[in-house]
Amino acid sequence: MHHPFWGVVIKGGRRIDRAETGLHRARKTMVIATALYRGSHLVAGGAVVTQHQHDRLFPWLALGAAVAATALIWFMAARHRRLVSWAVGLDVLTIGCLLPFGAYAWGGAHAQESIAWVMLLGGSSSAMAAVAFRARLLAVAVVLLVVTHLAGYLLVEADASVTGAHLNALVFSAVVSWVLTWYLCRQGKQVDSANRRALAAEAQRARFAERVAHHNALHDTVLATLTAIARGGVDANTSMMRERCAREAAYLRRLVEQADDREQASEVRAALEESVRAAEALGLRVTARYHEPPAVPGEIALAMARAATEALNNVRCHAGTGHAFLTAGGDSGRLIVTVVDRGRGFGGGAAGPDGAGASEGAEAPGGAARPPGPARPGAGGIGLDRSVHARMRGVGGRAFVDSAPGEGVRVELRWPG
Amino acid sequence: MAGVITVAVVDDDRMLRDGIRSWFEGVEEVDLVACAATVDELLAGPGKPPDVVLLDLMLRDDRPPADNIRRLRAAGSRVLMISVVADRDRIVAAITDGADGFLTKDQELSVLVEAVGEIAAGRTAHSPELAFALAYDRGSMRPRLSPQEREVLVGYASGLTLKATARRAGITVNTAKYYLDRVKAKYQEAGRPTYTKIDLAARVREDGWR
């Protein structure tokens, strides 16, 4: 499953990779293109050495050095997701500039045919330099290559036409690869900025939707209550009215705190708010606090909110307290939501009304210290356990339920698990 | 009457002051001796300074909260900050400035009385909202917390009871409380950090720069 807006790739509901940006993709394309170019030169060199120069040591060493320098460049490119300039510089100097003289001095390559394969490697050096270097350094590299290769071909007294064609290839390898890099990177940046704009528009839409939702909620709650009281004839001091006011004050409080936090409107927050309001409407007091919950795809936010609703329902029905705490935050990119109550809890020897034991995800070792003693899952606890688990696992997340008699219940929801 | 804690309320909302007065009427261990709209008004009043002052976090007079807290402490009172909303930056600033606790105004009476008792005894009134503000403080002057302090702080901030927090961390309740106290102490030792430009201006004034 790939989500275009969050740039998240979920494979088999478990792994996430940060998606590549367009610029990354452009650079990768150039790494591959220059690698193929160098590959063709190495194959040509290998063919010449095995057929005509296999009885001398130096050609083999030269071929080995070229393979090693190329491997270094690829290794660094794989690590940094682009051609690394010092590795390419090393290749230009050793393989591009020095190797031809080595081949002449120790390899017995005194003729144009026998030195040609070594010279060829300079072409791919020059192409890689055009990808990795800035303009001035690139000019220096190309001039160096042209000068040394000219000297090399003069040494072996090559045809002027062969020398000219080779120098032309050297220069135009750089030119073609530079133009390609420039074009691809420009396209990549355009794609990236379009993506950013789409993301911003999406956030804007989310903010607008949230505002409309708040307006509706304010209209149905606070405004209706205040209007009724102002009109008179309503006893504002009944317990029902007080509860209603407390609930609506809690909602306004969260609204104000959200504005104070200057946090971006997030889908998780909006979804969780809905769960909180639903629980409040059923008479539960919920203290909800948010601290920069990381952005997640919409379906994950929804699954989290449903699991949270379930946990809040459990508090309402089984905890023996009218108060729950919901916290949403992040831990190195992972979204963590906890639903906590200070009610009667369950677990251990003294089974609560649910007769359930402290339990957690089947193969999930909890982050914090676990209570000692046997975990004895029972009716209500395991019901909660099973249902939040199923929901979270379905989207690649995880749930932990922890409790002890008299100490309330703590449900932790995580994504990714 | 021995053992009775004297309390004053400083809040510019009269309805809230009246509400708290009628609340405390039924509580034996607490004696509400004064209600005032500003710290000036309270300090100008007659009688000994109260043991604990409930101070609104966002008074609408022009005195900076740091100033209010300092003057109340200098007069010999301890300070419990109260507020309608939990504005995290201001809570953190109030603790560094010498307040001994923070509660939102929607708490039940028992919670409020317990907090007053803790503070009158020279301890800290811990609350999940205070722990949350400290746990997720992003201020530049925040002190370094040890992993255990952080674990206890985050656990307590999530709404767990102190007992449950301690059990999860594998420590005793007393140790958990000690960690929470130490976090507060670290904030108060962190000196006089400046959190806002207004505070900064106040610091400059009190340091006699103008």
Could you give the topology of this structure?
The complex is a heterodimer of chains A (417) and B (210).
Chain A: E1 2-3, E2 8-11, E3 15-18, H1 22-52, H2 57-80, H3 85-105, H4 112-132, H5 135-155, H6 160-231, H7 239-261, H8 267-281, E4 285-291, H9 298-319, E5 323-331, E6 334-341, E7 359-360, H10 379-394, E8 398-403, E9 409-415
Chain B: E1 5-10, H1 14-25, E2 30-36, H2 39-44, E3 52-56, H3 65-74, E4 78-83, H4 88-96, E5 102-104, H5 109-120, H6 128-135, H7 147-157, H8 162-169, H9 173-189, H10 197-206
Parallel strand pairs in B: 1-2, 1-3, 3-4, 4-5
Helix pairs in contact in B: 4-6, 6-7, 7-8, 7-9, 8-9
Protein architecture, described:
The complex is a heterodimer of chains A (417) and B (210). Chain A contains ten helices and nine strands. With 417 residues, chain A is of the alpha+beta class. In chain A, strands 4-5-6-9-8-7 form a six-stranded mixed beta sheet. Chain A has a three-stranded antiparallel beta sheet with strand order 1-2-3, with no helix packed on it. In chain A, helix 1 (22-52) packs antiparallel against helix 4, helix 4 packs antiparallel against helix 5 and helix 8 (267-281) runs parallel beside helix 9 (298-319). The longest helix of chain A is centred in the middle third of the chain and has 72 residues, at 160-231. Chain A starts with a strand and ends with a strand. Residues 1-18 and 348-379 of chain A have low confidence and may be disordered. Chain B has 210 residues and is an alpha/beta fold. Chain B has one domain (5-203): Response regulator (Rossmann fold, 3-Layer(aba) Sandwich), CATH 3.40.50. Chain B is 49% helix and 13% strand. Chain B contains ten helices and five strands, in the order E-H-E-H-E-H-E-H-E-H-H-H-H-H-H. Chain B has helices spanning 14-25, 39-44, 65-74, 88-96, 109-120, 128-135, 147-157, 162-169, 173-189, 197-206, and strands at 5-10, 30-36, 52-56, 78-83, 102-104. In chain B, strands 2-1-3-4-5 form a five-stranded parallel beta sheet, sandwiched between helices. In chain B, helix 6 (128-135) packs across helix 7 (147-157) and helix 8 (162-169) crosses helix 9 (173-189). The longest helix of chain B is centred in the last third of the chain and has 17 residues, at 173-189.
